[in-house]
């Protein structure tokens, strides 16, 4: 069989191409549509741009809607949890003494400032105002129905008829108003996790001595919880057990004060006592006068700032005004802050019971366990 | 206006080129229109470094390829377009072909896409190797190689269908 020659093939292919050529009718049709369409349209027609306009408007409104929606949803309504809240002004930088009471659906704003009574005419008033940093406080005393409290980040916004007021949370119980006035509460907000101690007794009893104990004398009121606790002249000597075993939170230990502290203040006794608050591996922090262990609230008698065993409110209620040196600094004590400290292996975080009276881990950091001589288990017979 | 002149001169060649590839007269008309609209719109871009016809065919080629890509991305990707013709409308419906031409065209349609391109451009449209290389954006070597292979495959297919020099009608 003879093969096809390339020439024959080429010829046939050429002919094949001719078959596919368009008719003159088709060419005219194409020419018409090309050269009529190709002419540029110069007339401006609104309807051609209408879809663009419409979609822009829709897009814009969706954007605004989303923005507003998100702005709203960022705030959570926490009105219910503020029922029973009692917020008291603590700063003395304004001629006011506000007390905010949230009860059911009523918000009562009281101004218990006494100074106002002594301000006579406007001139006296101006003079009296000079001593205050905040001259125009924003809150107005009165009773407001149907308030709402919204929460976003660390900001609480109180909204009632006619006014809205922003409170910024500074500590667990400390708030700063938008005008700079500071408030405190005695209710913790948004604290979910709590560490408790059901074992440690608040007061020591009398114990008998054994071969694993020795006696120690303690004369300071650093551990006073209202009954001159641990003090030698009231209860006698302390029984210290050398059978330490494993240290638990709440144990009161007898230890060698680090020499660095004594070097600074020679009045501090070489042997000291204090309570174990933070154990190895934990992070101890004091926020607003409250101890937090790994961000959990330490809900025990030794977990917060006290004076002779009394917390802030109890103290101010039971102490005559003339016995309080300065209220501001006392309030500050009850709301003290200590930066977080990580307790390393073989060390413990020690606090005395009356923080303002004693020296402890707030001064020298976590204490090495080998400095501990023993655990105080009671008073001698 | 050179656009209209070019159209008068080359529209039938462009149309037949596209028609052979897409196998549908209406699509071929649309694509030819699209090609010339592009030609007119980009007239100023033509620098004269090739012949006008080559330039227009380059545009026709890319237009047709993007049409295939749009309509049948998967087929295009796997170079399966030729398979479609076996089930598609017979070319007899559109163009009057004698039995020999029909056989030629059917065999051509069964070849690889690149072989079809090179046969159509070189043998049917009569472009030179250099022109074909600039239309397809291939190297000249690739055009030459593809053409010889394509013709070989073409002949083989024809002979498989019982075509020989004896049955060839001149």
Automatic annotation (TrEMBL), chain A:
It is an enzyme of class 3 (hydrolase). One of its GO terms (molecular function) is serine-type endopeptidase activity. One of its GO terms (cellular component) is plasma membrane. It holds the Pfam family Peptidase_S26. It catalyses: Cleavage of hydrophobic, N-terminal signal or leader sequences from secreted and periplasmic proteins. SUPFAM superfamilies: LexA/Signal peptidase (SSF51306). Its EC number is 3.4.21.89. It comes from the Bacteria. This is Signal peptidase I. It comes from Sporosarcina luteola.
């Amino acid at each position: 069989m003879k093969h096809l020659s390339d020439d024959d093939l080429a010829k046939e292919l050429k002919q094949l191409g001719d078959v596919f050529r368009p008719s003159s009718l088709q060419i005219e049709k194409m020419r018409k549509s090309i050269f009529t369409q190709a002419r540029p349209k110069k007339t401006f027609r609104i309807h051609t741009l209408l879809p663009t306009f419409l979609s822009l408007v829709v897009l814009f409104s969706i954007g605004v809607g989303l923005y507003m929606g998100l702005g709203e949803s960022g705030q959570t309504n926490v009105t219910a949890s503020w029922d029973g809240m009692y917020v008291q002004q603590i700063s003395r930088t304004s001629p006011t003494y506000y007390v905010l009471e949230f009860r059911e659906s009523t918000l009562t704003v009281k101004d218990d400032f006494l100074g106002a009574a002594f301000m006579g005419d406007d001139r006296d008033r101006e003079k009296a105002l000079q001593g205050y940093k905040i001259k125009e406080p924003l809150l107005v005393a009165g009773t407001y129905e149907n308030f709402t409290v919204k929460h976003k980040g660390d900001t609480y916004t109180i909204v009632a008829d006619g006014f809205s007021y922003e409170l910024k949370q500074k500590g667990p119980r400390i708030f700063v108003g938008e005008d700079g006035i500071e408030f405190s509460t005695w209710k913790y907000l948004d604290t979910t996790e709590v560490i408790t101690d059901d074992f440690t007794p608040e007061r020591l009893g009398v114990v008998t001595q054994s071969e694993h104990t020795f006696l120690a004398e303690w004369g300071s009121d650093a551990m006073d919880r209202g009954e001159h606790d641990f003090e030698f002249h009231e209860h006698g000597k302390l029984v210290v057990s050398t059978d330490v075993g494993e240290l638990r939170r709440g144990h009161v230990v007898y230890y060698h004060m680090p020499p660095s502290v004594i070097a600074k203040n020679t009045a501090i006794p070489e042997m000291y006592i204090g309570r174990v608050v933070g154990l190895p591996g934990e992070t101890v922090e004091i926020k607003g006068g409250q101890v937090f262990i790994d961000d959990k609230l330490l809900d025990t008698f030794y977990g917060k700032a006290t004076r002779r065993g009394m917390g802030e409110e109890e103290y101010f209620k039971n102490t005559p005004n003339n016995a309080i040196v300065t209220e501001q600094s006392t309030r500050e004590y009850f709301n003290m802050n200590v930066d977080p400290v990580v307790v390393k292996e073989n060390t413990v975080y020690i606090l005395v019971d009356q923080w303002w009276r004693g020296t402890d881990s707030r001064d020298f950091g976590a204490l090495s366990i080998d400095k501990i001589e023993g655990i105080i288990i009671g008073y001698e017979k | 206006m050179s656009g209209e002149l070019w159209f008068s001169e080359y529209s039938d060649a462009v149309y037949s080129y596209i028609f052979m590839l897409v196998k549908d007269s209406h699509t071929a008309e649309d694509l030819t229109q699209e090609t010339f609209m592009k030609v007119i719109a980009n007239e100023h871009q033509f620098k004269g470094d090739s012949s006008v016809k080559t330039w227009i065919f380059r545009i026709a080629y890319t237009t047709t390829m993007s049409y295939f890509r749009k309509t049948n991305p998967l087929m295009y990707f796997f170079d399966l377009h030729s398979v479609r013709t076996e089930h598609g409308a017979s070319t007899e419906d559109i163009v009057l072909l004698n039995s020999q031409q029909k056989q030629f065209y059917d065999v051509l349609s069964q070849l690889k896409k690149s072989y079809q391109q090179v046969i159509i451009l070189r043998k049917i449209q009569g472009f030179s190797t250099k022109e074909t290389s600039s239309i397809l954006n291939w190297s000249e070597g690739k055009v030459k190689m593809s053409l010889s292979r394509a013709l070989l495959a073409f002949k083989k297919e024809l002979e498989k269908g019982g075509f020989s020099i004896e049955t060839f009608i001149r």
